[in-house]
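Re: [help] complex structure
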Amino acid sequence: MSTSTDPTRELVDPLIPRSIEVLKAGQAPSGAFIASPSFTVYRYAWLRDGAFCAHALDVVGEHDAAEAWHRWVVRSIEAHRPMIASATNRVASGETPPPEAMPPARYTLDGALELPEDDDPWPNFQVDGYGMWLWSLEEHLAGQTLPPELTQTVELVAAYLEASWRLKCFNCWEEFDGGEHASTLGAVYAGLASAQRLLGDNRWRTAADEVRAELLARYVSAGRFKRGANDLRLDGSLAWLAVPFGVVLPDDPLMQATAEGIRRELTGPEGGVYRFRGDTYFGGGEWLLLTSSLAWHDAVTGNAAGAEAGQAWVRARALPNGDMPEQVTDCSQDMSMVAPWVQRWGAVATPLLWSHAMYLIAEAARSR
Ligand code: BGC
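Output below.
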């Protein structure tokens, strides 16, 4: 999956070179990607955001930048090996460690844990980013064998995923909401499936199959995926379950019904995708990266019109200098909740690196 975007399209779409520029400018010398350079609360490096940033750079041929991120992940994880191994062992022996004993969702740009006094307390126990890292690593290697010096890190992370996926945790939106989330399990499935292929050890296939069975048994209702085991709502992140997580095939009727549900029930008047109904973060607006995620699914399933409509919507929300925000609030679900968030944390994060990443990935999928 490492073809680059169509060069003729780059000539007519300045958002492609601009997006590459934003990602590279947001990469610290350590290799970490800052989530957003202009939004204080997002001055950290999340594994989730970073996996898609690295993958976007891979699909446009910027392999060295992607490689630098993967090397940063390995160093950061290895620096916290005792904590990750201990969390894994505690869970495997039946304990439920407190969230602060679990591996973090985000690191400082130097790969350290954030200090509690540096910020608002953060809901750090989010398993999905670790699965996303393994998925993006396999994509980065593009069929090459895993460099031997990475074997132990991949094993450590796979063991952590295998042990911890049954625990309730925060979701990709960093909210607890019942603690059981389809897109988190999708990311865990993808990570374990990648671990099996990278390491050639069927232990990880068995674990991946268990996660997939759980998803199909408890996270499906009325012929489509639902966001939580006990939450019938849709969620924009369900768009990732086939592409890229591979839980089902992209054209599986279950996935197609999920994607059509997102398109019909989870979009604003002009087609931007909401995270979920009832979202109030900055009023619960439409997210660029989710709109591009649906476009990515559409491109892979041959729905060229859907993919173009989504990407056109995103394109029109970029600022004149090409920077893409996290979300747009003009059609937010709860307009009364926009100002309180602006007062608390400042204007919507812009540029948000993974908005640019998803745009690039969907464009690459469209040109294939
Ligand atoms: C989002 C996360 C994201 C983080 C940094 C949060 O508001 O919910 O998905 O990882 O911002 O971009």
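The chain has a mean pLDDT of 95.
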